[in-house]
Amino acid sequence: MPHLTIQATPNVSIAHEESLLKALNKALWDSGHFGKPTDIKARILPVDTFLVGVEDDEQEHGFIYAHLKLMTGRDIVARNQLAELLVTTIEEALAEEQSGRAALQICAEVEEISAVYKKKMLSIVSPNN
After folding, report:
1. What is the pLDDT of residues 88-124, one digit of tens each?
2. What is the pTM of this model?
3. How does 89-124 read in b/e, with b if 16+ C-beta sit within 10 Å?
4. What gap in Å lies between CA 76 and CA 63, rounded to an integer?
5. 62, 51 in Cβ contact below 8 A?
6. pLDDT digit string (tens) for 67-95?
7. Which residues contact 64 (CB under 8 A, 6 or more apart)?
């Protein structure tokens, strides 16, 4: 844990998706809330069909939505700090890449994962064995 999912509309420019994920994972790691760097898992999911408002046929509005799921135990202050950290990191990483054609909303939600969560590490098998 945690799991970070980024959703972005097609009118949001993300030149280097891997660089964005690295910046977000590093910011989360540097926050001091997580046990080891490999606990942080991130992915970007494109949003092909979307609508902002009720009539945005020209797609003048777009968004990036960051959804961070954590194990239970962090108070509301810590979760708010993590949400702000995600918004700030996304803004710093992407602000200059935007064309200005679309108004961009950056949204972040931090929530506790269900108490029912299982994880198992598979062993890495060396090709020489």
Report:
1. 999 999 887 776 777 889 999 999 987 776 667 777 7
2. 0.84
3. bbeebbeeeeeeebebebebebeeeeeeeeeeeeee
4. 24
5. no
6. 999 988 899 999 999 999 999 999 999 88
7. 6, 7, 8, 9, 12, 90, 94, 104, 105, 106, 107
